[in-house]
Write a structure and sequence with these properties.
Helix 11 packs across helix 14. By secondary structure, the protein is of the alpha+beta class. The strands form five sheets. Strands 5, 6, 14, 15, 16, 17, 18 and 19 form an eight-stranded mixed sheet that branches. A six-stranded mixed sheet has the order 8-2-1-12-22-21. Strands 3-7-4 form a three-stranded antiparallel sheet. It contains 14 helices and 23 strands.
């Protein structure tokens, strides 16, 4: 596609979004180079949940079998507990008529998953350069991004890793605090809660099943999920303002105190043994005002990340890379700069069409989490209506269209279900 030695696409970030974009582009003949500041395998604080529809993209990339062989846990659905104790239990395999690529989700530790995906990108022809930190972008005479400046430890004898790398197209897949988005001038703090997540892995957590769990409290929420090999991903998400000292001090002690202070959760962690470092990530609620610029596009968390509660960031990253690829190829094939720009602009429109329903759900969930009385009412309704719960969990699983739970009828039942039912119930007969 390019002249010999010229880089078509420079992908900054080798997580799921970057690996997906690189794989889809390299298999079409593009000369792709991937950069990441880390060396793989590496730890990454994450819920580590892959929705049922994520398996479709893993299968396309030839990564699904490797994930299964690596011991990925299977998840049949989700359980959500509200502050008043109501429990929403939704299954991925349900009677609503919508079907995912598979009827279960997966959970796999990020050091394993990311390495599998990176190797798939490499197998497709992408060149991978680890230990390279991007510090700024390069621009040409018309202001278009045409490469990056990097520093790093290189890895080859005599190679510092510092310098400039030029490419016809740069893709920012560099996560929540994207350098590419900042240098483009499009990174924004979204309206919404400013939360931090404390995430670690424990053995012998009590009561773990093949359902992912979310437990909403009045001061945040917690999650449990089996990630295979006897490990449970344990997370606590709380308002940033309430935990400043914990971040600088001992995150593991904070997480464990948080559970110990809640009688309905404390027994689950009583015999648990921490297996990894507890890491802190956030704050969340960031987005890019647009996901493209001249010579550059954003994908994954670099383009949008709101809140981890709905837990399908890995799917969005994989889907984003898949979605971007044809528009990136169209941009590379364009004869005129304005046509190349038009292709990337259309990618941004397609991205908004694809994800806007889920974005709306994320914001509604965040509103409910921040308003316990509202969440309690909605949870009571869903507890009494398994069909509605299955539909909601199907949306979180990325195979039920978001419009199904954004319909006025569904929302009215969700918020006013018990009230409406009591108003229309027959009055008791007088004795």
């Amino acid at each position: 596609m390019s002249s010999r030695g010229e880089i078509d696409v420079l992908v900054v970030g080798a997580g799921p979004a970057g690996s997906s974009a690189a794989w889809h582009l390299a298999r079409e003949g593009a000369h792709v180079v991937m950069l990441d500041r880390a060396k793989f395998p590496r730890e990454k604080p994450c819920a580590e949940y892959l929705s049922p529809e994520a398996s479709r993209i893993l299968s396309v990339m030839g990564a699904l079998e490797a994930c299964e062989a690596a011991g990925a846990a299977h998840l049949s659905g989700m359980v959500i507990r509200s502050p008043n104790g109501s429990r929403i239990r939704g299954e991925f395999a349900a009677a609503h008529g919508f079907h995912a690529f598979r009827d279960r989700g997966l959970a796999l530790r990020r050091p394993v998953l990311d390495t599998i995906l990176l190797e798939r990108a490499r197998a497709a022809g992408a060149e991978v350069r680890e230990g390279r930190q991007v510090i700024s972008v390069l621009r040409d005479s018309r202001g278009a991004v045409c490469g990056v400046r990097v520093r790093g430890n290189g890895g080859e004898k005599g190679d510092s890793g510092d310098g400039e790398i030029r490419a016809r197209l740069v893709i920012g897949a560099d996560g929540l605090r994207s350098t590419i988005a900042r240098r483009m001038g499009v990174a924004r703090n979204a309206l919404g809660p400013r939360r931090l997540a404390f995430i670690g892995h424990y053995r012998d957590v009590g009561g773990i099943t093949d359902f992912g769990e979310m437990h909403v409290e009045r001061e945040g929420y917690a999650g449990f999920a089996d990630v295979g090999h006897g490990l449970t991903n344990v997370a606590v998400v709380v308002p940033r303002a309430s935990v400043r000292d914990a971040v600088a001090g001992n995150p593991a002690a904070f997480l464990e105190r948080w559970f110990a202070a809640r009688p309905h959760l404390a027994p689950r962690m009583a015999s648990a043994v921490r297996a990894t470092t507890v890491r802190v990530t956030g704050p969340f609620a960031v987005h890019a005002s647009r996901a493209w610029g001249r010579g550059v596009a954003l994908v994954g968390d670099a383009a949008d990340f709101f809140d981890p509660f709905t837990g399908e960031g890995i799917y969005a990253a994989l889907r984003g890379g898949e979605l971007l690829a044809p528009y990136a190829l169209e941009s590379l094939a364009a004869d005129r700069p304005r046509d190349a720009d038009a292709a990337l602009r259309e990618y941004d429109r397609a991205r908004r069409r694809t994800f806007r329903g889920k974005w709306a759900i994320e914001r509604l969930v965040a509103l409910a989490v921040g308003a316990p009385a509202l969440l309690d009412r909605a949870a009571s309704t869903l507890e009494a209506s398994p069909a509605m719960a299955d539909l909601f969990v199907g949306v979180a699983g990325d195979f039920v269209p978001a419009r199904e739970v954004l319909r006025p009828g569904y929302l009215a039942k969700l918020i006013f279900g018990n009230v409406l039912k009591s108003r229309h119930s027959p009055l008791p007969l007088a004795p």
